Amino acid sequence: xxxxxxxxxxxxxxxxxxxxxxxxxxxxxxxxxxxxxxxxxxxxxxxxxxxxxxxxxxxxxxxxxxxxxxxxxxxxxxxxxxxxxxxxxxxxxxxxxxxxxxxxxxxxxxxxxxxxxxxxxxxxxxxxxxxxxxxxxxxxxxxxxxxxxxxxxxxxxxxxxxxxxxxxxxxxxxxxxxxxxxxxxxxxxxxxxxxxxxxxxxxxxxxxxxxxxxxxxxxxxxxxxxxxxxxxxxxxxxxxxxxxxxxxxxxxxxxxxxxxxxxxxxxxxxxxxxxxxxxxxxxxxxxxxxxxxxxxxxxxxxxxxxxxxxxxxxxxxxxxxxxxxxxxx
Length: 329
Description:
Blueprint: E1 3-6, E2 12-15, E3 19-20, H1 33-45, E4 50-52, H2 61-69, E5 78-83, E6 85-87, E7 93-96, H3 100-114, E8 119-124, H4 133-145, E9 149-155, H5 159-168, E10 173-177, H6 189-196, E11 199-203, H7 235-255, H8 259-268, E12 274-276, H9 283-290, H10 299-308, H11 321-324
Parallel strand pairs: 3-4, 4-5, 5-8, 8-9, 9-10, 10-11, 11-12
Antiparallel strand pairs: 1-2, 6-7
């Protein structure tokens, strides 16, 4: 497994491909916990070092699962988790909280669930527009000084917010959605983080699995899978988006790789400061994803992908209205 560095100040070295663990506990329908833990173990055996979770996944249960899976294997494992999206135990969303007292409370709870004495990369999951970013990051910096956190991150933050946060304490990574059909970060975000020396972690690099070609109708999703109600699955958007997924499969077939491998190879090709974190709940899909690290795209192939996937090519927003209000904060 190749290695990439997040951030330039005391840079955090991670595997070129991380593992998103959200779907092992939430949002994508039922998953086997035993298979999820076996998948994490196999990822670690194959050289993946970056495990990504958050307190709201489950809610709360995903951190516990990741903590169990990494037990006895702390060395070399980069644990990344997030706070700020607040959910009740029954799953109800309660809003976004970046107040300093909540930052400290959330960190202590995550440490306990993960079963560790420090978090390697601690993200603000969404920006609290009611709390100055300097106050939130100031509290996060206190956690660094206390030894509870090693590196700080933001997720779905606007360029101006990133600059203010970074001036308060060095930010190692920004996590934002990025894939062939979600190229929004190319407008300004990537330029900002590169100017500041901040790494970029790309979540949903497979378009929530849609770019693999596995999903063609809402009926293809398991019960409880929120993707079935995603705006890009609306009847008015579906045909165009299925055609986009079909184009990935066509180009992948020409290169003798899978659609998922092509989509991941494209994200990896966008810069050595970018680390995709595809999620999976199965070892077979994990092996397929990891093989993308060795896929090399020619200038001609990159040109074909650019032509097929210009910015804003996907039909429909990437979240329902409420979720869209909380991005680029």
